[in-house]
Fold this protein.
Amino acid sequence: MARARKGDCSEELYAFDAAWIAERSSPLVGADEAGRGALAGPLVAAAIILGEKDISGINDSKTLRPEFREELYAEVVRSARALSVAAFPAWWIDRFGVGEANKEALRRAVGMLDPHAGCTLADGNLALGPEIECLPRADGRSAVVAAASVVAKVLRDDAMRALGECYTAYGFDRNRGYGTQEHRRALAECGPCRVHRLSYAGVEC
């Protein structure tokens, strides 16, 4: 089991889920995405139904140390009742827009779990349809949405590490495609590669 970090508030997140389900139906599907703001690489969404056992330390993936996030990811995958992932590459984001990519990735990830869902909660304030409720900052309030955020984040980070082996000039293994000073300097010197989002400001052909 992953070791809980100092200030573990996972009990509060599980209590939130219990209260949410009490007013709807079980099981609860949680969904979140990773990579919306990156200059390169895919946008990844995950949807999940957690198992019966609570996962100590679960929280919004952005608040977790990378090593602990990896531990949690392994535990989430082992214990999940159901899990699905959808991703869109940079060219799709350029063609249809990041907002549409975000919504479609979440819809597709959630849709794969529809046969098992009692109710669904996604992070953010998007209009995803009548069957999917959205709540801003749900990844820091709901255990199942936090678990989805961990899965999406870890899988996307892994994808960026792999892309970094193919496109070595940009430091994707360190910056994960986000607009760090190092990444922007590499863009200025080398120009974009095929996994950059050419529609984003700061990425120029």
Remarks:
- The first helix runs from residue 10 to 22.
